[in-house]
Amino acid sequence: MESKSLTELLASNTTSELFSGTPFQAQKPVVVEPPKIEDEKKEVKSGENERIVFVGNVPLECKKKNIKRLFAQYGEVEKVWRRSIPVERGKLPVIAAVALKKYKEGNDSCNFYVLFQNKADAQQSLELNGNEFKGKHLRVDLASKPQQNTERTVFVGNLPFVVTDEEVWEEFKEFGEIDYVRIIRDQHSHQGKGIGYVCFKDKKASKHAIAKNNSMFQGRRLRVSKARDSSEQQQEKMAPAPQKHYLNSKFFDPSKYKKQADIVEDAQLPKTRHPSSLKGTKKLVRKEQIKLQEKRKQRQISNTKKLKVKKQKRDKS
Looking at residue 40, what is its pLDDT? Predict the structure, then answer.
């Protein structure tokens, strides 16, 4: 006898089939797989890194087709994808937040990646670096080997946390042609960390830009210095820390600390004052001490008088 489903048995209105002793076989549930969505965060295949171009400081209203049309003049573009979109996510996914244009305040740019078919075309497209596109200067570089030239770059510290690349560009363009501006931002919040780099096309311009050190920018005092290579920073970390010396002490003898003094660059001993110049200061200090002593005596006398008055009142009562 063929096994029937529970719904068929109930529809037949025959109780004999329900209790005939044949085991009931439930049908297996059909699992419907959700449609596969192509994820842009795929692992990059081997050999594609050298053909990928990074494009930074792109306006938020720019779309993939605009970037593809811009870079298609250098060769065939296989793929374009967008990254670092500063959106207020909340409970919404990124795609929905982008569609609703819920961008964070103070952030007006994002990044793109362009995959060329040929390596030579990707190298040639670097000519767009520094060009103005929809009111913003693009930062174009190879994703695998970003250019780093510390001789033409200055480090800018104490920047406002909410600042754009264009505002920093306008602040430093008076010193010469700028190659690119890079502001270090948090990967998740996309907010600035208060530091950045400005790379010039000429080495002399970077030297002149150091004059901006201690200048005011949007209510903050900038720290501008020559950019250092990562190897130089590691050497400074590995170098032994100079020992502290009490240079202001009159018992300090520099002849006993020659090795330590050599570590400290441009170490200068404090200038000792002539004893005759200290006579006036000693007299002033002595006068202040006498005044304090007199005030203390007056307080003691007033306190004793108050105590005597209180005792007299108690005795009378």
Answer: 44
